[in-house]
Structure prediction request, 683 residues.
Amino acid sequence: MKKYWKSTAIIAVIVISIGTFYINAALSAPEYPMFIIEKQSGQDQALGSLAVEGFYHETASMNYVNTNVTITSEGSEYNSRTFIDQIIGQPAPMIEDLQNEHRYFMRGKGLSTDSYFESDQMLAYAEATYSYGSMGPEDFTFDIGILDKQTNDTNAFTVEIPESLEIDYIYVEDVQVVDNVLHVITYNVLSNNNNNNVANYIYTIDLTKETVSSYEAVFTESEQQEDLDINTSLVRTNPKQANEQLLYLKTENKEIEDQESIIRIENLSKELISYNLKTKEKTIIDLGERLKENDISYYVDSTVYLTKINEQNLVVTPYQLEDQQFGNPYTIELSGETGEGHSPMIEVHEGKLYVTTRRMTDKINANVTMVDVKTGETLYKGEVITKEDKEDLDEFELYIHDISVR
Amino acid sequence: MKNYLKLVNFEFNRLAKLFAVLLGITFLAQIGGVIVLSKKYLNVANERIYEDMIPKAQFIAEFGQMNFLQVARSAFFMGPIALCIAGVAFYIFLIWYRDWFGKNTFIYRLLMLPTTRLNIFYAKLTNILLLTFGFVAFQIIFLPIETTVFKWMMPSEFRNDMNVIEILQSMPELSIIFPNSFLEFILYYGAGLMVVSVLFTAILLERSFKWKGIFAGIIYSLVAVAVLISPVLLHEFVLNGFFYPIELFLLEIVMGLIIIAGSIWMSAFLLKKKITV
Prediction:
């Protein structure tokens, strides 16, 4: 045995040293507080499967990495940054659900929720792809995928995007299927003859012929005036929502330089315009002065929700597109910080409006409110709290960036 | 099995000297670094505080406390690590060629041993692993010794203490040698084992066919690389992103295992049939 002492010793050193190191590393993994949504009033099960997502960050620590945390009424779950988790990646909850349900169809599909349209009958997908040429991106095409949920048939094809030579950049903002016609709603950056334009396009795709049957630039803005910024943006909706009417918000902003050469942006005008996918008609929606004071927060079931912060309250004004009428405004009481840059998160799901404040620290709590979207009656009121005593915790900040109801 | 262990022990005794020397250099240079760099900091501190009459608190506010990372990022610390890496890389070749070119063609006796010749291959591969893990293990042992010396050298108000895990996790440049989790440890060093087995096969090809063998060895290595990246290429260019990331990851592990198995099979064949002395 004496002959073997050297190799025996080295093996022992290796096993003990590396073993202890990894056991210690596992034991000293950072510990995060447990968050939970606690009920203050309302029914017990009312909140359902609401999940609040935020970035957790310890203010005093040298580590600037934000850790993503998902908080529900049952507790919180941190996205661990383990090796396997980094490989799998973190697709949005909706994409994750789709990948679990339609594992084969979702292969090779992008991770942007805007690219999907889902109804009871079908799942449609459209994404713009390109190849890198010598002059930058070229050969723009749409990757289209249609899944018939009843028969499980898939139809996948690619179509060339018309006038692809002029396109510098294209982003699919929404996909809609109306009466079995697929519409791809995009935001394009175009350049021709050194003129840069931004435009909102709608491409209509014929699913049987697998071609682009028509396309139209709904809005085009050329970038000419230096201090004037005209921007038309699509009012985002839930990707699972079918909308015959699209809503665009056109804003005109002017850069104003004051004496101390601080540039501030003044809003000159706002206009809400609807576009009907069936009739291809544009209509200006007259909201009067209300549009100027309010933000367009949500658009669901042909109702637009205008919101504004009034001291500690959120004032919600519904507007029905069909009968062109304002509903009764209602207020939702908020606590915590509602200052600038911290406008609350709003989500509408199955007739309920969910509101959460944006920021939580070791001193202020974030709150969660659920109201009936039609009447404004408060159905649930809760608060995001930590299970641990706040005095035992280090200074932290939780920035809420998403809420979702599955 | 017994023959394999005997061979491992035998090979290890042959490299023990080199191992001990490199470990000694590492330890002395790193301890030296701790002493030199903390002395340097303290000299500056003395100068500023006693000659320029700056209050201690202000000096610390301006200069910052010293932490062990300043030692760990210096050439005193990283230099020996680089030397050990170079040592392992060099020894991958030396472990075979010394048997041919050393005194009295030792490989002749090795090949004549009454055991399967593949055991020679396994024993040499194991020794490369022992050498590498030995360095890693001793570095983990050296670190707390070095931080203790650092604490002796530096008055507590001037230093910011860190433990071994904090030090290693704050140095991404070392994360390949000291991966953050045990799974990564297995994967990284598994990949290293694969590379060594391919290199061993290439060396045996050279030993079997001399000049032509160098060419064959290069081809073999290129084939191994092609096999390894084939799933990624297929995924990107042929299948349009067909695989989910986790599937691609598992496929890569399978490919790595295939390459190791292929190398062992090839080496066994060469050692049995083609090797020349």
Q: What stands out?
A: Chain B touches chain A at residues 8-9, 12-13, 16, 19, 130, 133-134, 136-138, 140-141, 163-165, 178, 180-185, 187, 239-246, 249 (CB under 8 Å).
